[in-house]
Amino acid sequence: MTSIRSLVACSLACLALMACGGGDGFRQLTPLERQVYLEPTPILTALAFDRVAQGYDSGCMLTPAGEAWCWGNNEYGQLGAATAKSCAGGLTACTWQPVRAQAPIRFGQLKSSLRHSCGLDVSGQAWCWGFGLGGQLGNGANADSAAPVAIAGNHRFVHVDAGSDGMLSCALDDGGSAWCWGPGDSGGLGNGTTSGSNVPMQVLTQQQFVSVGAGSNHGCGLDATGQAWCWGRNPYGVLGRGVSGASLVPAPVTGNHRFASLAVGGNFNCGLTSDGAAWCWGFALSLGDGMLAAHSDVPVAVAGGHTFASVSAGYQHACGLTADGSAWCWGSAALTGSGSEQESKVPVAVAGGHHYRVLQAGGTATCAITLTGSPMCWGININGAVGQDNLGP
């Protein structure tokens, strides 16, 4: 993981020192420069997709038939299929081309993380694959798997999420109960303890949730009234409760906000109200409120007066889609898709004039699907995260 983060830092350092070349977002300078795509770029495939799950430096998409196709880093089998090509000096398994997850499962949902992915089949059975040392696969074992494995228990879930840093997975059953599994550091499982679990553990709360999400050692849920609740580790005020310190069980996000949906990110979260206004809390760079360097332990309004139909939270950046499919992003350098390598404290329009049906902000890249089903990505092509064939030696 250190090598990946070092490469990200080095790529962004190069961007800060060199001029931009070309109008298509592809930088034709050093090998590191060739990994940066500042504007949406098509993934070369004849497949059509309708759902996207972008992880840290890997991603997956689903076809209308529910087939999962993945690309990027495959060090721990997080693509769900074996890959022959390697990158990062031959040290990391990866591929820029979408490969089909090897188990013939028809998925209805999919979410990718730093090192693992989880999905729901059409019956509500949850499956995970990839890194499993901390119990993130939820199958009762603590081992990696390059093939999807069924989550333990007789659960039937309506939603599943894999945490942005690969340390947590959470799901929601059809009765409104949240379940989490993986390392329990700082109460990430929400069950009142700091113990981990390799099988789903029920989150301790009187609330019935309508959605649930997993972040960086924290989770959040939304109840039927629109109140957001968060639990676990609390760096940068990511729990949104106005005070420091972890919470071993769900605690209400302060501010009397009523959200229609939640987007749970790395060390920040965002909520979207029924009138399309976005509010975020946690890590400063990801808030979109225009402030220079202030983390926030309470929700703050995203600047610009935009009306969003959906919001996606990545590792350190977020993106929103308007009703017509126009995309706006804010946060980390080189990930906004605006054609600039600079970070942005406010939403900026994604370049190219494309309209998207869905979008997912990840760690080193953002990927989206156009209204016609074409996949496009932008960001840093580390380990093939952008789906482009310029991985280098």
Task: Kindly provide the radius of gyration, computed on alpha-carbon positions and rounded to a whole number of angstroms.
Answer: 19 Å
Shape: globular
Give a short account of the largest sheet. 5 strands, antiparallel
- Beta-strand fraction estimate: 35-45%
Number of helices: 1
The average pLDDT is: 89
Low-confidence stretches: 1-33
Side by side, the strands of the main sheet go 2-3-4-6-5
Report the order of strands and helices: HEEEEEEEEEEEEEEEEEEEEEEEEEEEEE
Helix content: under 10%
The computed structural class is mainly beta
- Counted beta strands: 29
C-alpha end-to-end distance = 18 Å
Can you give a write-up of this model?
The protein has 393 residues and is mainly beta. The chain has 1 helix and 29 strands. It has one helix at 2-17, and strands spanning 36-42, 51-54, 58-62, 68-73, 86-87, 92-100, 107-112, 116-121, 126-130, 145-150, 157-162, 169-173, 178-182, 197-202, 209-214, 218-223, 228-232, 247-252, 261-264, 268-272, 278-282, 296-301, 310-313, 317-321, 327-331, 344-349, 356-361, 365-370, 375-380. A 5-stranded antiparallel sheet has the order 2-3-4-6-5, with no helix packed on it. The longest helix has 16 residues, at 2-17. The protein is globular.
Secondary structure topology:
Layout: H1 2-17, E1 36-42, E2 51-54, E3 58-62, E4 68-73, E5 86-87, E6 92-100, E7 107-112, E8 116-121, E9 126-130, E10 145-150, E11 157-162, E12 169-173, E13 178-182, E14 197-202, E15 209-214, E16 218-223, E17 228-232, E18 247-252, E19 261-264, E20 268-272, E21 278-282, E22 296-301, E23 310-313, E24 317-321, E25 327-331, E26 344-349, E27 356-361, E28 365-370, E29 375-380
Antiparallel strand pairs: 1-29, 2-3, 3-4, 4-6, 5-6, 7-8, 8-9, 9-10, 11-12, 12-13, 13-14, 15-16, 16-17, 17-18, 19-20, 20-21, 21-22, 23-24, 24-25, 25-26, 27-28, 28-29
